[in-house]
Amino acid sequence: MHPPDIPQTIPNWIDGCERGTAAGETFAKRSPVTGREMGRAARSRAADIARAIGSAADAFPDWSAQTPVARGDVLMAVARTMRHHQERLAAVVAAETGMSLKAALAETGGAVAQGEFMAGEGRRFFGRTTTSAAPNKQAMTVREPLGVAGLIIAANTPIANVAWKVFPALVCGNTAVLKAAEDAPATAWFFGKLAHEAGLPSGVLNIVQGFGEEAGAPIVADPRVAVVSFTGSTAVGREIARVAGARLARCSLELGGKNPLVVCDDADLEKAAEWAVRSAFSNAGQRCAAGSRIIVLESVYPTFRDLLVQRSRQLKVGPEDTDDFGPVINPGQLEAMLAVVQRARSEGAAVLTGGGRLNDAAHADGFYMAPTLIENASPDAEISTHELFGPVACLYRARNFAEALDLANRSPYGLTACIHTRSIHRALEFARRVQAGVVVVNAGTFGSEPHMPFGGVKQSGNGTREPGTEALDVYSNLKNIIMTFDPSLA
Length: 490
Ligand code: NAD
Fold this sequence. Notes:
- By secondary structure, this protein is α/β, with parallel strands linked by helices.
- The chain is built from 15 helices and 22 strands.
- The chain has a seven-stranded mixed β-sheet, sandwiched between helices. A five-stranded parallel β-sheet has the order 10-9-8-11-12, with helices on both faces. The chain has a three-stranded mixed β-sheet with strand order 1-5-4.
- α14 (424-433) links the parallel β19 (416-420) and β20.
- Bound molecules: nicotinamide-adenine-dinucleotide (NAD).
- Residues 152-156, 179, 181-182, 211-213, 216-217, 220, 231-233, 236, 239-240, 254-257, 288, 387, 389 line the site of nicotinamide-adenine-dinucleotide (NAD).
């Protein structure tokens, strides 16, 4: 299916216009469901990026001079336009990711909510008023925009990823260049179209298509870009931090995860199994927050394992609303995962279910991996320490709560973590001691809402939080203004 809203060749949005690249190059976008080319997208390079940054820089004086309330009103119009066209937007998301329309509608709804929350920040935009050590003085803080924001995103939840960055960057008064994920060019382009129709002034948001090194790297290196906000892998995030750091540009990194879900011996095992399945496999495991390490106390391990295997075998894989999850985004990701599973097997890990590509007639053309559960992998093995970003989870035995906590923390990552227990003491102790930016008790490794800070510790990020009001700290400078009440007394 090719939704009517996706053009055969997806252009960039620069200065309010759709443009091809200077060299006229394009690249292919393949459907994860059929494996076939769906269309092409502009293959931007340094000259195209320079033009997009120039457009954003030109638009900055007028946009930043508007009041935050006025900017919020424009962004609210963008969010309303998204809601009005939610079905169309979701159809684009579903077509290029292979997720079901139902899942795409849910994601789109979340993106609209993100837009509404951040648009509302235009009417809050709080600073701090405080006192001074000196008499006759008062201090207050105000937020100021930084300039041009460079926004670089992953493809996994493409409209959510756009909304998480664009709305806070713009409400703060920055203008922006957004580099779409090469696996999800149409969603970002369609967002640009809706924003344009909603009245976002030309040049405030420029959207460029292309590959990371060709179209992303020039954004990070350009001295006109004051803040780089990146969602993607830890390896690329490290390189971005290096380049942005060398020129002292602000940098926000939302990176990968290898998230633990701990099941204690006092847990409701049925519920825990249900949440473990959702945490591991929803969106085909392509979530930074996916629960890919399931740590189970020894006394309930066999019972829980059986429940989990049984539920995983019942999952339906495909692009329909009646399916539980769809394909992964591209063949490279599928091959990489299969290779890691194969290496784990050769090192002695056991595949409890799945473990391979789905090769039957309904799935053979798409990039489908069976829901995969693995046990007996060492906690230090590649499969335990590397993010796979697919429908693969490993089970680990822990002798007691302390060992479960140790295993949870034995990871280079620290994004989300979850515990299933009926004990308030264990829940609180876990929440206090687990190394993660988000902790969940008795549910799944899900934990983002528009008004809450999301982000990780260790190699999952560099300490910033998006979204929530905390995202405003990424995209603005605080200025401290000190007022003297009566100059004659100073
Ligand atoms: P990736 O790092 O390969 O690519 C992400 C983006 O960076 C793409 O747009 C890509 O073109 C661009 N890029 C690649 N190399 C670049 C370079 N040298 N300079 C500038 N830009 C470059 O990641 P991916 O495989 O597409 O996405 C999956 C990753 O994203 C996973 O690690 C996942 O955990 C992470 N992720 C994190 C969050 C979060 O909020 N923490 C959310 C979603 C995804």
